[in-house]
Design a protein that fits this description.
Elements: H1 2-14, H2 21-44, H3 48-60, H4 72-115
Length: 131
C-alpha cells in the first residue's frame, strides 16, 4: 500500500503541469481509489482527523460526479496539498507500524520474563489449611 500511496502523491505532483485532459481523468480515478483506501484504513484505526481530510479529497477528486474548478491556478495548490497528504499518511503509517512492533516486542519480552521462575523460590513443605 505504501508504494500505491507514493504513486498517488507523485501523480498529484505531476498534475501541476499542463497536461491533456485524459491525464486528469486518470488522476481523478487514481486519487479517488487512494483516498478510499486511506479512508477505510483511518476509520478502522479510529483516526478521525485523517478520515475527514481524505473524505474531502474523495469528494473533490470524485470521477463519477466531477467537480470542475475550470482554472488551473486553483487546482495547483489542491494537487500539491493532496500529494503532500498522501506522503504524510505514508509517514504516519510507518510510525504506527514501528510503535506496534515495539509494543509486541515489549509484550513478548515481558511474557517471557514472567514465565521464568526466579531461582530463590521458597516452597512451603506444609500444606495450607483449608477453611
Amino acid at each position: 500500500m505504501k508504494a500505491f500511496l507514493t504513486f498517488c502523491a507523485i501523480c498529484c505532483f505531476v498534475g501541476i503541469f499542463r497536461l491533456p485532459i485524459e491525464y486528469y481523468t486518470f488522476l481523478r480515478i487514481l486519487v479517488s481509489v487512494g483516498a478510499l483506501i486511506v479512508l477505510y484504513n483511518t476509520l478502522s484505526f479510529k483516526q478521525y482527523y485523517f478520515s475527514i481530510i481524505f473524505l474531502i479529497i474523495l469528494i473533490l477528486f470524485n470521477p463519477v460526479f466531477p467537480i470542475y474548478l475550470y482554472r488551473k491556478n486553483v487546482w495547483i495548490p489542491i494537487d500539491t496539498v493532496t500529494g503532500i497528504l498522501f506522503l504524510l499518511i505514508n509517514f504516519v503509517e510507518n510510525l504506527e507500524r514501528k510503535k506496534e512492533e515495539e509494543i509486541t516486542e515489549e509484550a513478548s519480552e515481558h511474557s517471557q520474563q514472567s514465565r521464568v521462575p526466579s531461582r530463590d523460590r521458597i516452597v512451603n513443605p506444609k500444606k495450607p489449611k483449608e477453611e
